[in-house]
Amino acid sequence: MAVPLALLLLLVVLRAATADAGAGAATTVAYNDRALVINGERRILISGSIHYPRSTPEMWPDLIKKAKEGGLDAIETYVFWNGHEPRPRQYNFEGNYDIVRFFKEIQNAGMYAILRIGPYICGEWNYGGLPAWLRDIPGMQFRLHNEPFEREMENFTTLIVNKMKDANMFAGQGGPIILAQIENEYGNIMGKLNNNESASQYIHWCADMANKQNIGVPWIMCQQDDDVPPHVINTCNGFYCHDWFPNRTDIPKIWTENWTGWFKAWDKPDFHRSAEDIAFAVAMFFQKRGSLQNYYMYHGGTNFGRTSGGPYITTSYDYDAPLDEYGNIRQPKYGHLKNLHSVIKSMEKILVHGEYNDTSYGKNITVTKFTFDGSSACFINNQFDDRDINVTLGGATHLIPAWSVSILPDCKTVAFNSAKIKTQTSVMVKKPNTVEKEPEGLKWSWMPENLQLFMTDERGSFKKNELLEQISTGTDQSDYLWYRTSLEHKGEASYTLYVNTTGHEIYAFVNGKLVGQNHSANGEFVFQLESPVSLHSGKNYISLLSGTVGLKNYGALFELMPAGIAGGPVKLIGTNGTGGIDLTNSSWTYMSGLAGEYRQIHLDKPEYRWQSHNGSIPVNRPFTWYKATFDAPAGEEAVVVDLLGLGKGAAWVNGNSLGRYWPSYTASEMPGCHVCDYRGKFKAEGDGIRCLTGCGEPSQRYYHVPRAFLRPAQPNTLVLFEEAGSDPTRAAFRTVAAGAVCAAAAEPGDDVTLSCGRHGRAISSVDVASFGVSRGSCGAYEGGCESKAALRAFTAACVGKEACTVRYTAAFAGAGCESGVLTVQATC
Ligand SMILES: *[C@@H]1O[C@H](CO)[C@@H](O)[C@H](O)[C@H]1NC(C)=O
Ligand SMILES: *[C@@H]1O[C@H](CO)[C@@H](O)[C@H](O)[C@H]1NC(C)=O
Ligand SMILES: *[C@@H]1O[C@H](CO)[C@@H](O)[C@H](O)[C@H]1NC(C)=O
Ligand SMILES: *[C@@H]1O[C@H](CO)[C@@H](O)[C@H](O)[C@H]1NC(C)=O
Ligand SMILES: *[C@@H]1O[C@H](CO)[C@@H](O)[C@H](O)[C@H]1NC(C)=O
Ligand SMILES: *[C@@H]1O[C@H](CO)[C@@H](O)[C@H](O)[C@H]1NC(C)=O
Ligand SMILES: *[C@@H]1O[C@H](CO)[C@@H](O)[C@H](O)[C@H]1NC(C)=O
Ligand SMILES: *[C@@H]1O[C@H](CO)[C@@H](O)[C@H](O)[C@H]1NC(C)=O
Ligand SMILES: *[C@@H]1O[C@H](CO)[C@@H](O)[C@H](O)[C@H]1NC(C)=O
Ligand SMILES: *[C@@H]1O[C@H](CO)[C@@H](O)[C@H](O)[C@H]1NC(C)=O
Ligand SMILES: *[C@@H]1O[C@H](CO)[C@@H](O)[C@H](O)[C@H]1NC(C)=O
Ligand SMILES: CC(=O)N[C@H]1CO[C@H](CO)[C@@H](O)[C@@H]1O
Q1: Do 130 and 256 reside in the same domain of the chain?
Q2: CATH number of residue 770's parent domain
Q3: Is 358 in the pocket of ligand 4 (CB under 6 A)?
Q4: Which residues form a coiled coil (predicted)?
Q5: How confident is the model at residue 759 (pLDDT cuts 50, 70, 90)?
Q6: Residue 558 located in a structural domain
Q7: Active-site positions?
Q8: Based on the domain organization, do 335 and 443 belong to the same domain?
């Protein structure tokens, strides 16, 4: 459509008047059945999730830059309500909660943004993002049609929208935000809430409330396939979304969460989703007319503080994402997807405008041909997980490996196959701190947690003749809630103290002495504690400390899942089976939090009296605070602290929380620990079926210490609160860097690139250049059929360099080698 020049000028003037000086040009966002239409152009968009509170502001520019270099157009994030509004109308938009700064960094990088407000977000985040104080509001029912919930949800949603408007962050204002999301995965639970009418009214209210915000870009709802309100786009989440289509015909196919891996729990090994399988899923999605897809996660990051959900989600939220927890490029996943993105983007016009035709070439084989403007582009997929297939297309035969997609931008030449990785593999390792020798170099001191205050039932916040639920009693301001009572007893006697609790862990004290502890198994909540105890004549005190490890974040009515000794019972059972005492309805005194939390011992204030007897500290002592001073590792590589040897607790560096630690929890053995074949559907629920690592090892041993937490030229302080009792003196700081890098090339003419990363580490040796590698994995290849010529060429080109590229020439070929594939391994 031709716009008269005068009108165009007028529009420009109007826009300039509404936008602040310095803001970018306004962007229009519309959509049709094929794509989002941005500034009048249909677009293929590739997005990735980076959650701002899971890294530091200092990391954001680098993460976003790497995402852009990886071929992404947009960054997507949830908004974290309980992080922003920890108490009613008391807000936190500082540090890693500075959401506007995060969106400005996206804008500075020239990328688009997707704002997923929720504000229920799931996200393996504590309580799914909802503030626990909501429960104090009378009449409150979460995520159903009721005034208290809708009022609070609208209040927070409006606050975020207004912050974004004030900063000109929406596309129409010249900002990066092209889409916004309201609610989250509601379709998964709405039928299970036993109140379908209210659920339906609620989801329609959400859409109306959102549309009233007048943000100028479309609203999306993910996993909302039934009962989709008008004026919202419903989208898909999952490992695969090619067979899914949106509910209405006038909206594009959008994939909000393509899970790049999976999160980790304290008792589970590490999940890995292969680069081949994600590339397969993404290629299939675009083959089947996808228009916008988002990687969940592109960078997973760290659950600092008490933010992990679950319960039992680890502090690491690495997710096996293309950028690792520390922000390093994960190869080959990052590079393989980058190659895919560039092929898909080269076909953008034909994918969003072209006519298309899916043709079956037999069972499990589909060829899709897009045609537009006289040219054509093809996808060929092979969905068999056990056989390679030759497909003849336009006279040429293409071998399509099992569980893969080939993309032919001209329907003749294969530009990409999802199962053929041309990117190097990097093996990241933890290197010792070169500044000081550890663990010997760390200077330790300690302080006991003051438990005496809680060893009677005298001082507390309040008393009640019942055992209360923990989340509603303590409003989740601490992991810990004390339950204390006393009883008069005639004479001495032995009993079993029996406590039935809804989780997540418990410590029991009788007359000031720790008598037992227990915790729930992952996936279960209710458990029991049974401890032998002795009572003396007269008054006896029973103190129970209940602890949570991250609140549930998912499921129908997840918010009502109790924690703590809700209802008990708590009993003293006579050792002869009779004469028990039921304490369930005794007078219980309540107090939330530990003395050390009130004193903020983690801040290491000057008045604190840390003890050190000639450098020796007590070990295996429950409820102990430890402090160590250390020099920050030199350089720019990511820093971690190795907490092997510790039990369970929380860690801080220079007052900044590293999160909960629990290295004494060992990851279970599962069938998927011992097989890793990318072919076939990836699964993570239950036991996960393939490519698990870390089985039988501490589920999380290393804890991220962002560089921003460290002071380069002065001593740094590590504070640990050890709850279970352990030996901290083995703790040590490490840097994370590429150890070995490996690459393979199939044919002469292929370029082989090796890189140690950006932080100045150079390739120190080329260890393998062979045509016979069939055993081992990168870093531990067992060669065979070595090519001396290739080894010489790589050694000459690579040693001493951060990165090098060598072309595979016919001169390298070893006589009599079975494989024509050249594999190279180097050490950084
Ligand atoms: C949110 O609630 C506070 C009072 O609690 C009120 O002052 C404020 O105006 C509300 N915001 C919106 C957008 O309704
Ligand atoms: C609510 O709807 C779901 C299907 O959407 C159905 O399975 C369920 O039985 C319904 N529940 C009630 C209480 O009507
Ligand atoms: C969406 O799809 C479901 C089943 O696929 C159907 O029952 C429903 O009527 C569709 N439309 C809307 C607007 O929900
Ligand atoms: C789709 O492609 C097949 C095979 O090339 C052809 O037979 C068929 O006519 C095409 N259908 C349309 C609608 O173009
Ligand atoms: C398609 O492949 C899958 C995985 O190999 C297999 O289970 C399925 O039976 C195949 N479908 C057909 C129709 O052969
Ligand atoms: C594919 O075709 C090639 C060349 O004709 C042949 O060597 C190969 O065995 C075929 N592979 C399969 C899986 O059919
Ligand atoms: C333990 O508590 C749970 C949750 O309140 C309850 O369902 C269960 O019946 C209790 N078990 C015993 C043995 O009292
Ligand atoms: C811990 O809880 C589990 C599950 O309830 C139970 O089997 C075990 O005996 C308990 N251990 C102690 C010491 O109470
Ligand atoms: C059983 O033990 C309880 C306390 O341990 C005691 O009060 C009671 O007298 C004992 N009963 C018998 C029959 O021994
Ligand atoms: C505790 O109080 C509740 C509620 O009053 C009652 O139902 C229960 O029977 C009492 N339990 C005991 C052991 O007295
Ligand atoms: C302090 O420890 C060192 C080495 O552990 C030891 O040689 C020295 O005698 C100790 N000094 C005292 C006063 O205990
Ligand atoms: C929408 C979608 O594809 N959901 C899938 C997400 O992945 C899980 C696990 O593989 C499937 O069970 C869901 O169907």
Answers
A1: yes
A2: 2.60.120
A3: no
A4: none
A5: confident
A6: yes
A7: 185, 257
A8: no
- Which residue among 524, 527, 570 has the greatest number of ligand 8 atoms within 8 angstroms of its CB, and so is best to mutate? 527
Q: Mark whether 189 and 314 lie in a shared domain.
A: yes
The enclosing H or E element of 736 equals strand 732-745
For residue 225, tell me if it sits in a domain.
yes
Is a pLDDT exceeding 90 seen at residue 736? yes
Beta bridge partners of 371: 355, 376
For 493, residues 6+ apart whose C-beta sits below 8 A from its C-beta are: 534, 535, 574
* Nearest ligand 12 atom to alpha carbon 238: 6
Per-residue pLDDT at 675 exceeds 90: no
Sequence-distant (6+) residues with CB within 8 A of 614 are none
Best residue for ligand 4 mutational test, from 355, 356, 358, 359 (most atoms within 8 Å of Cβ)? 359
Of 593, 619, 640, the residue that ends a domain is: 593
On whether both 816 and 783 belong to a single domain, the answer is yes
Q: Give yes or no for residue 584 CB within 6 A of ligand 10.
A: yes
Answer whether 355 contacts ligand 4 (Cβ < 6 A). no
Q: What is the pLDDT of residue 398?
A: 98
- CB 728, CB 617: distance < 8 Å: yes
Asked if residue 376 has its Cβ within 6 Å of ligand 7, the reply is no
Query: What's the CATH code of the domain at 304?
Result: 3.20.20.80
Residue type for 273, please? R
**Which of 563, 593, 623 is where one domain is finished?**
593
- Taking the C-alpha atoms of residue 486 and residue 454, their distance in angstroms, rounded to an integer, is 12
CATH of the domain at 500: 2.60.120.260
11: confidence class by pLDDT, cuts 50, 70, 90: very low
**Lowest pLDDT segment from 46-55, 336-345, 482-491, 613-622:** 613-622
Please work out whether the CB of residue 359 comes within 6 Å of at least one atom of ligand 4.
Answer: yes
Ligand 5 centroid, distance to 185 Cα (angstroms): 30
Which of the 8 DSSP states describes residue 188?
A: G
Q: Which domain holds residue 378?
A: 355-421
Cα 228 to its chain centre, rounded Å, is 28
Q: How many separate domains does the chain show?
A: 5
Least confident of 132-136, 430-434, 615-619: 430-434
CB-neighbour burial class of residue 227 (10 A; exposed 0-12, middle 13-18, buried 19+)? middle
DSSP-H helix ranges across 430-495: 470-474
Find out whether the beta carbon of 383 lies less than 6 Å from any atom of ligand 5: yes
160 and 220 in a single domain? The answer is: yes
Residue nearest to atom 13 of ligand 12 (CA): 238
Q: Return the residue whose CA atom lies nearest to atom 13 of ligand 7.
A: 500
Q: What is the rounded distance in angstroms from the CA atom of residue 780 to the CA atom of residue 799?
A: 19
Ligand 10, atom 7, residue with closest C-alpha: 585
Beta-carbon count within 10 A of 452 CB: 10
Residue 613 has pLDDT above 90, yes or no: no
Residues 236 and 365 in one domain: no
**Ligand 3 nearest atom to the CA of residue 247, by list position:** 1
Indicate whether residue 614 lines ligand 2 (CB < 6 A).
no
Query: Which protein residue's CA is at the shortest distance from atom 14 of ligand 10?
Result: 585
How far is it, in rounded angstroms, from Cα 458 to Cα 480? 18
pLDDT beyond 80 at 525: yes
Taking alpha carbons only, the member of 240, 223, 222, 139 closest to residue 179 is 222
Residue listed under structure tokens 């700081």 = 733
The one-letter amino acid at 326? Y
Scanning the structure block, which residue is given the tokens 């200092």?
58
Q: pLDDT at residue 16 above 50?
A: no
**Cα dihedral 641, 758, 799, 822 sign:** positive
Instruction: Name the residue at shortest CA distance from atom 8 of ligand 12.
Output: 238
Same domain as 631, residue 483: no
Residues 391, 480 within the same domain: no
Assess if residue 620 is contained within a domain: yes
Model confidence at 23, in pLDDT bands (50, 70, 90)?
low
- Cα distance between residue 379 and residue 562, in whole Å: 50
Question: Residue 671 falls within a domain, yes or no?
Answer: no
